[in-house]
Amino acid sequence: MTISRNTSRIFTHATAVAAAAMLAVGLAACAPPEKKSQGGETDSGVKVAEAKSAADFGGMDKLVEAAKAEGQLNVIALPPDWANYGAIIKAFEEKYDIKVNSAQPDAASQDEINAANQQKGKSTAPDVFDLGQSVALANTAMFAPYKVATWDDIPSAYQDPDGKWVNDYGGYMSIGFDSAKVPPVTGVADLLKPEYRGKVALNGDPTQAGAAFSGVLMVALAQGGSADDIAPGVEFFAKLKQAGNFLPVDPTPATIESGQTPVVIDWNYTNASETKKLPSWQVLVPQDAAVAGYYYQAINKDAPHPAAARLWQEFLFSDEGQNLYGAGGVRPVRADNMAAAGKLDKAVADSMPIAHGPVTVPSPKQTEAATKYLADNWAKAIG
């Protein structure tokens, strides 16, 4: 399980501090006047910020009551067209009459952590996180343990036993390309051909964002590497750079639709979302280098709206929330169990991506080692 989003940012360490400061300003600017968090204790005598389940509030109705009293929820790095978050946020707002303040939707996972540190103690700090594996596992001390009502329906491999984090949705790494502008891509090796000069973009910096990290891993597999040896992936990108094929532009829907980034390495659900707007856009999941991964959902232990943060988790892992994820082209973490119970929408079941053949899902240990290798070698390879 690798991963972290990002629709942003070739994001270097040198710019991290400045970006975090800008992020703080953006968070403060986007949040309207709010009701102050109730804080204090739940009806059962547990501090709201330490509640580990809805039962600690006295049941789901009491959790909803406490969240509505707070009135707002701060989220970060959730693009509307990523995993259907636009529809998910709207559904949450309408169901509970809670305002969702969505800051910096194009930020990467590390930006979320930076923002939480910058805004700690302020009403504008992120309440919840949606992170890639490497960033999530490096920051578990920042998470508040909490188990949703559907906890037992989530496979144990996809959750922290204490409830500090839980995987919410996943997908496959892919290559998206505009068939009206470039020849069809049949595999990773094609990307070195002269027809792709100045046309191949990677969604982010692999030292900062999970999508890019998994993109490098996918390339490594195609080049004979493995989850234990990501070096061939870095070497391939160095060759892309030397050939003039690597495009140092962070892809967005706008760059894809304008033709600026005609080939994009990114999650299949993000690439697939472009086919609705650009019919010539096609998506390939390399069958000889299939990489899958889940994102990590967690609550900020210093959340300014601790009850709303917990209600958000309950919504995301409810049948409604999981089906909304599925409608965005991702695989909900409860998909198999929901399907067996007849709770998974048919349209969602029919649309979920399938990879034929072996699928690589790096372990936390493999991700940690690969992350260190990237930190030491990525900038030199594409610099």
From TrEMBL:
Keyword list, A-Z: Signal
PROSITE patterns named among the record's database cross-references: PROKAR_LIPOPROTEIN
UniProt protein name: ABC transporter substrate-binding protein
Highest taxon of the lineage: Bacteria
Signal peptide extent: 1-31
Region described as Disordered: 103-124
Coiled coil: none
PANTHER family: ABC TRANSPORTER SUBSTRATE-BINDING PROTEIN (PTHR30006:SF2), THIAMINE-BINDING PERIPLASMIC PROTEIN-RELATED (PTHR30006)
Composition bias, Polar residues: 111-122
